[in-house]
Every structure is written in structure tokens, then in C-alpha cells.
Amino acid sequence: MRQRGVEIDLEALIDLDRQHRRLVTNVENLRADLNRAQKEIGKLPPDQRPAAIAHNKERGAELKGLEVELAKAAEALEAALQLVPNLVHPDSPPGTQDAELRRVGTPPEMDFAPVDHLTLGEGLGIIDVKRAAKVSGSRFAILRGQGALLELALVRFVLDRLLAEGFEPVIPPVLVREEAMYGTGFFPTDQAQVYRTADDDLYLAGTSEVPIASMHSGEIFSANELPIRYAGISTCFRREAGTYGKDTRGIIRVHQFDKVEMFSFCHPQGSDDEHGRMLEQEEGIFGALEIPYRVLDIAAGELAAPNYRKFDIEAWLPGADRWLEVTSCSNDWDFQARRLGVRMKGDSGTELVHTLNGTAVAVGRAIVALLENHQRADGSVAIPESLQPYTGFDVISPSR
User: Fold this and answer.
1) Mode of pairing for the β-strands spanning 256-266 and 228-237
2) 372 and 253 in one domain?
């Protein structure tokens, strides 16, 4: 918690745990005593039974009172535990300064002044934020024509790569229960970023990580089943509360976007290696799209509550003249598995699995990076060779 810059009263938390344990013991002991006494009543002489029954009723009332205390103590302990973040990987950079691990690719040399993705997208007739605002307000976009085809091409291009690596494609629900948000660690810290339905206790997920992690809640895998790898295809929703003025131009920070998310349930001893494999997948995707990028090891003070360690990939944007985060890749260790009750049975007994997630492609941001890096002087955009079999075209030209 010191590494993260998080302040929690640990003594108060430990005291809540002691109270809860004491009440559990008292309730269990009293319940056992009552069960024994109830069995003995039938063996007593008839004249002693009324007194024994009356005594049991008094003890029963005492048990009910203790059970109420226990329920309150359990609720208080759970609420306090929900605020405790994950441990931090010993190799994560300290403080709040991320460490740049490497840069891959060279920013394209252009003999003209590059423009940003929205200028390109509007000129090409593939991004329409003005009409989206009519429909839904700010921070929404409509992808049109070849822009819509580009999205579908990116999704299938990425899926084919993940299928070859043993990922099972999944299209999960986007509306999830509150316990799924708590189980994955998005609640209580990120509640302000989540849309909630007015008439049902359901939330619009900001990533398919939430339903995929939760779909195995309460289950026990056998060790030889692991790792289990999923590629979640979903529309994602984020309120972006508190981000006004940040990346408001175009389709970088919008309320609705589509994504392919990698998710893995793996053996506890293999999660560091699995984390590296996920990062390799992300790098391979952006390398194949011929987009220059850099890899960041996220500092302890910048990690979200569930993260044990996280790597980000940032793509270079020539038009905006800056780096843009396009993927995140997180090892959440046993944090989510503990909350969701996902375990494995191995030679040494039952233990919690580890969970990992990584962005294979956040489609909107990938389109931003593609447009800016493959733009031409005439306002057209070349399609990378690796993507052409999926688009069916090799260039997007300005609309007439």
C-alpha cells in the first residue's frame, strides 16, 4: 500500500477480522450445544423436559442475536476488504514514474505536414462525430463505409492470430451484475466510470474482462485444464467521468467502443510467463500493423487496485505528435480469483488460480494509430499488407 500511495487503517481492518472470527466461533459453538441439547431432551424424564425446552428457547434467542451480530460483522469486514488493493510485483517501478522498456519501429518519414485522425477520418468520410452527437451527445462516433469495414477487419485479423495461440473466442453479455463488478475489482474504486441501468441492478461493462472472469466464479479447475485462454469480443462502455478536456477530439476517449480482450486463467506458478506471452501477442499485432510503439512497465503508484503488474503499449501518432496508449496487459495474480472463488485442484490440494487480461485490440484507438501512421499527402490512407486480406482494399481515399 505504501508503494501504491494508498492509505488504509490496517489496525482497524485486523480488529474487524478478529471480531468476525470470534463471532464465527461463538455462533458455531452455541449452535453445536443447542443441537446436542435438543437430542438429549427426548432422553430426559418427562418432568424435566419443560425446563430443558425453555432453556433451549433462551439459548435459541441468544443464537439469533449472535447471528445478527455475525452478519453485521461480516458485512463490515467485507466492505473494508474491498478497499484493499493487490500486492505489487517486486519488479514494478516504484513511485509514479512508468519505466520505458523498449521502442519498436520507426515513426514514418513524411514530406508533408501530417494531420490528426479526425481530420483524416472526416476527409475520408469514415468517421462522423457530428451526426453521432445528434443521436447520443458528445464522445460518441459513427464509423461509416470503409471505416466500418476497417473495424470488422481489425477484429477478425486479431482473432485469427489469437485462435492460432489457443484462445477461445467468446461474445459475452455486456450487462453484468454488481457482484461481477466487485469480484473483478472494478467496484468500489471505479463506480463513477460505470453506467448503471435505471430499473435493474445491472451495469454496462467497460471491458469483457468482467463477464469472462465472472463466468467461472465458484468453479474449481483441474490443474491440467490450465491455462484457459479466452478472446472476448464486446462493445465496451465507460462514462469517462472526470476526464473532460482530455482526448475529447475524435474517437480516442469515447463512451462506447469495441474491443477484443485476452483473458487467461492460469496456474499460480505460471502467471509471470503467461503475462509475457500476452504482451508478445499485443506487440505482434501492432508490429504486423506497422505501427511504431513503445512498451511501458507501469509504476506501482499508477496500478489499478486489481493489478499485480501491468504493461502498456503506446503507439506513436504523427498527426498529434504524441504517444497514445493502445493496449494494457495486466497480471492480477489471485486478486480476482479470491473474490470470485475460482480455484484449481492440484497435487498439493486446492488453491486459487491467477487471472490475467490484455487488450488484443481496442478498435477505435487502433484505427486512430492506423490512420495517422499510414496517411498520405493527398489525404488517403494506405492499409498495411497484413490487414488487406481482411479489408478487401489496400487504400482508403478521400470521399468525393
Assistant:
1) antiparallel
2) yes
Is 179 a known active-site residue? no
Cα 24-26-28 angle, rounded to 5 deg: 65
Helix axes 271-288, 146-163, angle to 10 degrees: 140
The CATH number of whichever domain residue 214 belongs to comes to 3.30.930.10
Round to whole Å and give the CA distance between 72 and 182. 19
CATH of the domain at 19: 1.10.287.40
- 18 among known catalytic residues: no
Count of domains observed in the chain: 2
- Considering 67, 165, 240, 325, which one is annotated as catalytic? 325
For the whole prediction, is pTM greater than 0.85? yes
Active-site residue, selected from the candidate residues 4, 161, 238, 277: 238
Start-to-end Cα distance in the chain = 57
Q: Which of 92, 214, 271, 328 is catalytic?
A: 328
Whether 325 is catalytic: yes
Query: Which structural domain, as residue segments, surrounds residue 196?
Result: 99-396
β-bridge mates for residue 228, sequence order: 265
Find the catalytic residue in 139, 339, 343, 365. 365
Q: Is 253 a catalytic residue?
A: yes
Instruction: Specify whether 365 is catalytic.
Output: yes
The string of pLDDT tens digits covering residues 109-157 is 999 999 999 999 999 999 999 999 999 999 999 999 999 999 999 999 9
Mean pLDDT, residues 8-37 = 95
Co-location of 53 and 153 in the same domain: no
Catalytic residue among 253, 294, 338, 376: 253
